[in-house]
Design a protein that fits this description.
Elements: H1 2-5, H2 31-37, H3 42-59, E1 62-64, E2 73-75, E3 78-86, H4 87-111, H5 116-119, H6 125-129, E4 151-153, E5 155-158, E6 164-168, H7 177-190, H8 194-197, E7 199-200, H9 206-216, E8 227-230, H10 239-249, E9 252-254, E10 259-262, E11 265-270, E12 273-276, E13 279-282, H11 305-310, E14 315-317, H12 328-331, H13 334-342, E15 349-350, H14 359-367, E16 372-376, E17 385-387, H15 393-405, E18 410-414, E19 420-425, E20 429-438, E21 440-443, E22 447-449, E23 454-457, E24 473-481
Parallel strand pairs: 3-24, 6-15, 8-9, 8-13, 13-14
Antiparallel strand pairs: 1-2, 4-21, 5-6, 7-24, 10-11, 11-12, 16-17, 16-18, 19-20, 20-23, 21-22, 23-24
Helix pairs in contact: 3-7, 4-13
Length: about 475
């Protein structure tokens, strides 16, 4: 252990380290892992790295990173040192996420029906009704079985004291689960002996659980419902995931041109003729899903799909209009949403958030741009963000203008010292990288949370940006039973 980790400095006084305590000793659930890694030579690590690279290359495990001069398609960056989560810690995360998703589903049903939470002034109505993701066309429309959120990927971080905080909720088309599954397969090939040391809970059954959930939310009366995955196509950054999940579930991967609506029913064009479609796991945003309802220039969607959806003849997962619940401004009200609908205190807390629409918050934000993180309310993937401590004066001035011009479109948060985890680069260099965790929640007749999730890693030394679209990577996440 000492031979391998001697060069690692956790900087525990500045960041919560997932592996080492402030005194520099391993946390109990990492003892066996570090002991085993300590027996590997640099050549051993290099051989295992090459094994993983070959596996990823053969599987076509890629992600698109926009803006790179050398090309946008690359192998998904993977760190060989897994993250270990003890079962009692995971139990807290599971309970907190189940509470959160339950409340958000009730919130969505309410705002698309009676809007009681707005009339009770728990949330200012203009923040909901003025959001670009609030779909007025669906007020009064109830999705099959009353479920809006079927697949969720909430991002969880730890602050300097080790407390779990929800950074944001991804309720529209959360991505990354295929990398979670492939990371596990890569680790089993590269380090099979490690799995003999731990009782690692499996994640491999996620595709079957996803298919079961999608079938459960099919329109009433449909025996053996037919499920398809709807992708924007091969040029989408997450196309690998779309095709992977369709293949693993044993369902058709379709594009908009493969589906047709006839008499408010959705059909897939196949070599056997038209086949009725009951559930669409869509990876296309609302705006592009039906050119007759939203953007008329969309070539990605299916003309007439929304009429079929409104009639209750097809389920869209996730439902149209869920984006309002992962609007970053609405995120700041989730603790109140939980208390309002469930009468409970949040199990997982939010990151403190300032809203520029409040005059006092705006004043504070403009005076502290050099210390805050500013985010566009409806951007994702790390876009539209200012990290104050890493920004220039010019960038701060530009964001100040944007905020003043459109305060509803921004939030500000303190710069959280995300927890760190030792990561291995160049097969010999070991240093702490900031990480977060994206567990995946499936919501059908019951709520299922895959034990683990995707741990994302900020690969650039000192960076706080873990998003894959910004060049971040990932590592395998082990929920372990002692």
């Amino acid at each position: 252990m000492k031979r391998f980790f001697d060069g690692y400095h956790p900087e525990a006084s500045r960041f919560f380290d997932e592996v080492m305590t402030g005194e520099g000793s391993p946390r109990p659930h990492y003892d066996k892992l570090l002991s085993r890694f300590g027996q590997f030579s640099v050549d051993d690590i290099k051989a295992r790295r090459e094994m993983v690279n070959i596996y990823f290359r053969n599987q076509g495990i890629t992600f698109t990173v926009y803006g790179l001069e050398e090309g946008i398609e690359r192998l998904f960056p993977f760190d060989l040192i897994p993250r270990v989560v003890p079962s009692e810690e995971w139990a807290l995360i599971e309970k907190g996420l189940t509470q959160r998703i339950t409340a958000l589903n009730l919130f969505l049903h309410d705002i698309y029906h009676t809007q009681k939470i707005l009339r009770d002034k728990v949330i200012p109505p203009e923040l909901v009704l003025g959001s670009p993701h609030f779909r007025r066309e669906f007020v009064g429309v109830t999705p099959p079985r009353g479920i809006y959120i079927h697949i969720t990927g909430s991002d969880i971080i730890r602050d300097g004291e080790g407390n779990h905080l929800v950074l944001e909720d991804n309720l529209r088309t959360p991505s990354g689960v295929s990398y979670m599954l492939q990371n596990r397969q890569a680790m089993k090939r590269a380090f099979p002996v490690l799995f003999e040391k731990y009782k690692v809970r499996p994640v491999e059954n996620y595709p079957q659980e996803l298919l079961r959930t999608l079938q459960e939310v099919a329109p009433q009366g449909r025996a053996n419902p037919n499920v398809v995955v709807l992708t924007p196509g091969i040029y989408n950054s997450a196309y690998f995931e779309h095709s992977f999940l369709a293949r693993q579930m044993g369902v058709e991967l379709t594009e908009g041109r493969d589906l047709v609506v006839n008499d408010n029913m959705v059909y897939a064009r196949t070599t056997r003729g038209l086949e009725r479609v009951d559930v669409i796991y869509r990876r296309i945003d609302d705006d592009y899903i039906d050119p007759l309802m939203f953007r008329p220039d969309s070539k990605l969607g299916v003309a007439g799909l929304i009429n079929a959806y409104r009639k209750g003849n097809v389920t869209l997962a996730n439902a149209i209009g869920t984006g309002i619940a992962d609007d970053k401004v609405i995120y700041s009200f989730v603790p109140k949403i939980i208390r309002y609908y469930l009468g409970e205190d949040p199990i997982l807390q939010n990151v403190p958030t300032w809203l520029p629409g409040n005059p006092s918050d705006l004043k504070y934000i403009l005076e502290h741009l050099d210390t805050l993180v500013v985010k566009a309310a409806n951007e994702s993937g790390g876009y539209g963000m200012l990290i104050g401590p890493e920004s220039t004066t010019e960038e701060q001035e530009r964001f100040a203008e944007l905020i003043v011009k459109n305060p509803r479109n921004y939030i500000a948060q303190p710069t959280i010292s995300l927890s760190r985890h030792p990561s291995l680069f160049n097969d010999s260099e070991l240093y702490g990288c900031h990480i977060d965790l994206r567990p995946y929640v499936l919501n059908g007749k019951t709520t299922t949370i895959v034990p683990g999730g995707l741990t994302r890693v900020a690969l650039k030394r000192g960076s706080l940006v873990v998003n894959s679209s910004q060049g971040g990577g990932s590592k395998d996440t082990w929920v372990v039973d002692e």
